[in-house]
Amino acid sequence: HAEKKTIADHLRKYEALFTLSPQRMRMIVHAFEETLDKGLQKDGEIVPMIPTFVFGYPSGKETGEYLAVDLGGTNLRVCLVTLHGEGRFEVTQTKYRLTEEQKQDEGQKLFDFCAECLGSFITDNLGRTEKDEELPLGFTFSYPCSQERIEHGELIRWTKGFGAPNVEGHDVGAMFEKSLKKFNVRCKMTALINDTTGTLIASNYVDPNTKIACIFGTGCNAAYMEQAGNIPKMDELGLAPEQDMAINCEWGAFDSFDHQHLPRTKFDIIIDESSNKPGEQSFEKMIAGLYLGEVFRLVLTELIESGHMFLGQNTYKLEKAYAVDTAFLSLMESDPTDELLTVIGVFSYFFGLETTLEERVFFRDLAKLIGRRAARLSACGIAAIVSKKGYLEEGCAVGADGSLYNKYPGFADRIHEALVDIFGEKGKNIVTHHAEDGSGVGSAIIAAMTKSRK
Ligand code: ADP
Prior knowledge:
GO cellular component, one term: mitochondrion
Oligomer: single chain
GO molecular function, one term: D-glucose binding
Enzyme class: transferase
Radius of gyration: 23 Å
Domain Hexokinase C-terminal: 211-449
Number of strands: 13
Order of helices and strands: HHEEEEHHEEEHEHEEEHHHHHHEHHEH
Domain Hexokinase N-terminal: 11-205
Shape: globular
Strand content: 15-25%
CATH topology of the domain at 58-206 and 437-447: Nucleotidyltransferase, domain 5
CATH architecture of the domain at 58-206 and 437-447: 2-Layer Sandwich
Number of helices: 15
Bound molecules: adenosine-5'-diphosphate
């Protein structure tokens, strides 16, 4: 028999679990900074700090027409980007939804699908003939790849729920080119890039004060510019020490395996242990869009099991793993009505459950706790780069993209609030803003930069 606890008691308990104090955040920032340094020292570290072979920021003068293919966690996008120079551009794009089967099916088929979509995009939008020159293509592939050249990248491991066999350990650039040949797609793949690197370059093209880029979408990650002299693991390439190179941090892996630094709750542990990659991507699993709805759902499951919620109602729909999308949390947090009518709608329409006003207020408060924790952890990652690079005094802009950042109410404000908690008033010098489309525009600019280097 359930002991008598009020909803307010529950809320207090979860508040204690999900709240990060300024002091705790500073400890995380410190450990994070050390981890970033380690990744620059040698290969095979948990946070791999991948050199991208994107050499420095764009000049802003890059021009021309480029194709871009972006294999994200949720969608495949194909774009035609026209760069006009001086920070101006135009984009035409088509989106294709990826199915769960495609994410687990034979790897080469995934690239075949990308090539087929690109092929029909070119036919529909470009009207080019055999005589026309092939357009350069930037391929945005946002999974950790170790690179030896700009158009090469060996997949280290799948993230964000992907598991397609025979891709890990292979050069995805070569796999995609094989598919392009197979479907006779006329274009020249010139750059394989990560969405964070693309975002860094695209945001900097428009606002040169941008020094860091972050993605908060299905997964989470960041990129920034580092000098070769600070990347000991690249010494053998013999680059000039002051040569800039964009680093794809792959910071979602922070605190993986040993779990020493992040305050994981039992809900985070359940998510991790029942994922297809237990132990990995610890930071990402507490922040990203793929997981926040599931954290929320697991809390409700606990309350259902202990007999504190939905007594006498059929809760099977809510008991299905990943039944709660992070978008529901957004919806609940932005419900403007006193009665919380949106929350009523979400629960009755999607889960067939009736709710009291008191419960709905609790759900909204719980969403706030989970969303706020994600934003504060994100701020810790940003703060680690800021502190490492000494950007605090002069300040800098952080280009951010992804549905979580763009659509979750208050996500950016919560990051800014946390930066002040970490750094004091000076934290206000670090400002995030919605980034230019990195995986389209960024990959086009990088393709242009690559062309001019050759
Ligand atoms: P991707 O990272 O795959 O390129 P997105 O940036 O669109 O794509 O991120 C998709 C993720 O964002 C999904 O996990 C989804 O749950 C989450 N999401 C979608 N809409 C919203 C929303 N309105 N609020 C918060 N999260 C959302």
